[in-house]
From TrEMBL:
Record-annotated membrane-spanning stretches: none
Solute-binding protein family domain ranges (all copies): 109-451
Matches recorded under PROSITE patterns: TAT
Family: Belongs to the bacterial solute-binding protein 5 family.
Cited InterPro entries: Peptide/Ni-bd, SBP_5, SBP_5_dom, TAT_signal
Cell compartment(s), UniProt: Periplasm
Protein name: ABC transporter substrate-binding protein
Naturally occurring in which organism (per UniProt): Mesorhizobium sanjuanii
Length: 536
């Protein structure tokens, strides 16, 4: 027989939850339940339900300390110049963007109240009212115009200067309205402006040492290459946020040292844990691992304009020779998702899930190598620790080649100088690409005929035309169809092999709550400080 609760309403649930928050004892709570007509067994159910509800809700207070994996004396508080994860984390705590990407990869409004355009070329941006900078200044259209124009000034050295170059006109229509004109139509502008570099700073800012933004935290301490400390912005425009009283961010480059700092209680959060260091967490009580797969990947690049990549059958043979399952299992220790040789990951709303990766098939690989006339010849493959897990991947592919008589000479080169001396240059080599929020950015950087990072020198007039067509369309369904077609073209025609999308793993105290995945990368796209809370 089931105990029933009589005359019990949602208002009574709320009363119990509030009592739990106030610290009521279990005995006091049971008396409250019995008075409401609940039997003891049913009362326990209500208590469990109420306790879970309270635990899931954010609580305010606490000092959060996290460690990343990299820092530099060149660390900056200028969003336009941000280049490391540590820069992104700081900037996300101090500033806001016009838009941001949510956990599903959908563009949401932040400082912008709306983004409107009839032709994807001229955009009208309405700003939220009642937003102030840390120094008390009101946010206005002039701040947005100044922030955007900075990226076009060569003297600033913006890391997104090439992306920003498409913005050719800025106009403050009134105090809370901005008009942005593009050189050519681009329906992705609201999403592009969700990149970390496009944070809004106060009009006329030249000194960034104070971190004066509209963000959730106010700067207290900034020691480049060492640490930063920020405290709660009590005048933050987002009601109830942030939850933390303070946030300190440091860098510990060694994976094991970073995990040990977590286990010893020196920090609450250790970012980007190496699979080998994950073993230190093991079955430890009070600690958790958080996995995010957001589009980072290591790829094998075969230049189509050089020997041996200028022989189409060699490229096809290599795609059949890559054992994707083994790479995820062994090279990535299970921390990845199978890739299908194109850069738009499953974390992106435009990902083509119908495009299947080539199956590992040594016989087909051998057939194409024979057809290319290269079977038995020694082919250099350049790998380095600079490209995540590329050496392990290279060894796996090398072993598969040896089984069918294909000689792949893995040349391991130092990390220092790899990106300048080998990436984009060697006939067969590895790269590593960080997440980007839109297919257009990925294709423009990596696969357009004039792409600055065209890793395999892929060139297609049809592809270039499709890219322009998709960019100019405001029809989301049409763009998804075009981007799906472009992903298929890259997978089948380009000389890049993307075996897997790599997962980022963070380690944290079980008291840290609110952490979610984000397509812009780990640590909630580096914006975690604003959204996390510490369980009491």
């Amino acid at each position: 027989m089931t105990d029933k609760i009589t005359n019990w309403t949602s208002a009574d649930d709320a009363m119990v939850e509030n009592a739990i928050r106030r610290g009521a004892s279990r005995r006091e709570l049971l008396k409250m339940l019995l008075a409401g007509g609940s039997a003891v067994a049913a009362g326990s159910v209500v208590l469990g339900r109420a306790t879970q509800a309270v635990a899931a809700e954010p609580v305010s207070g606490g000092n959060f300390k996290a460690a990343g994996w990299s820092s530099s004396t060149a660390d900056t508080l200028d969003p336009a110049k941000a280049s490391l994860s540590t820069d992104y984390v700081r900037c996300c705590s101090l500033y806001n963007r016009l838009t941001f990407l949510d956990k599903d990869g959908v563009t949401q409004m932040e400082l912008a109240e709306s983004f409107d355009s009839k032709d994807a070329k001229t955009w009208t941006v309405k700003l939220r009212k009642g937003v102030t900078f840390h120094d008390g200044k009101d946010l206005t259209a002039d701040d947005v115009v100044f922030s955007m124009k900075r990226h076009l000034d060569p003297a600033v050295g913006s890391k997104v200067a090439k992306i920003a170059a498409q913005m050719t006109g800025f106009k403050a229509v009134d105090k809370s309205t901005v008009e942005i004109t593009l050189a050519d139509p681009n329906a992705d502008l609201p999403t592009i402006l969700a990149l970390h570099h496009f944070m809004i700073v106060a009009d006329g800012t030249t000194d960034f040492s104070k971190g004066n933004g509209t963000g959730a935290f106010v700067l207290q301490t900034f020691e480049p290459g060492v640490r930063s400390v920020v405290t709660k912005n009590k005048n933050y425009w987002k009601s109830g946020q942030p939850y933390l009283d303070s946030f300190e961010f440091i860098a510990i480059s060694d994976d094991s040292a970073r995990v040990n700092a977590l286990l010893s209680g020196d920090i609450n959060f250790a970012a980007a844990i190496n699979p080998r260091a994950m073993k230190l967490i093991g079955g430890q009580q009070g600690f958790e691992l958080s996995k995010t797969t957001s589009g980072n990947y290591t790829d094998l690049n075969i230049r189509l304009d050089m020997d041996p990549g200028n022989k189409a059958d060699f490229v096809t043979g290599m795609k059949y020779l890559v054992n994707r399952e083994q790479i995820v299992k062994s090279a990535l220790r299970g921390l990845g998702e199978i890739g299908n040789d194109q850069p738009v990951s499953p974390a992106n709303i435009f990902h083509n899930a119908d495009l299947k990766p080539k199956a590992f098939d040594p016989d087909k690989a051998k057939f194409h190598f024979q057809k290319s006339g290269l079977l038995g010849q020694s082919i250099p493959v350049v790998a380095s620790d600079a490209a995540t897990s590329s050496i392990d991947m290279a060894v796996i592919i090398q072993a598969a080649g040896a089984d069918i008589g294909m000689k792949l000479d893995v040349q391991r080169v130092p990390s220092d100088g790899y990106w300048d001396n080998y990436w984009l240059k060697a006939p067969v080599h590895f790269g590593n690409i960080n997440p980007r929020p839109t297919p257009d950015i990925l294709f423009s950087l990596l696969y357009a005929s004039n792409a600055p990072w065209n890793e395999s020198q892929y060139k297609s007039e049809k592809f270039d035309k499709l890219m322009i067509e998709a960019r100019a369309s405001l029809d989301q369904a049409k763009r998804k169809e075009i981007y799906g077609q472009m992903q298929t073209m890259v997978s089948e025609e380009a000389g890049t092999i993307i075996p897997a999308y790599i997962s980022n793993v963070d380690a944290l105290s079980s008291k840290v709550k609110g952490l979610e995945a984000n397509p812009l990368g780990g640590m909630m796209g580096y914006a975690m400080a604003e959204y996390l809370w510490l369980e009491t």
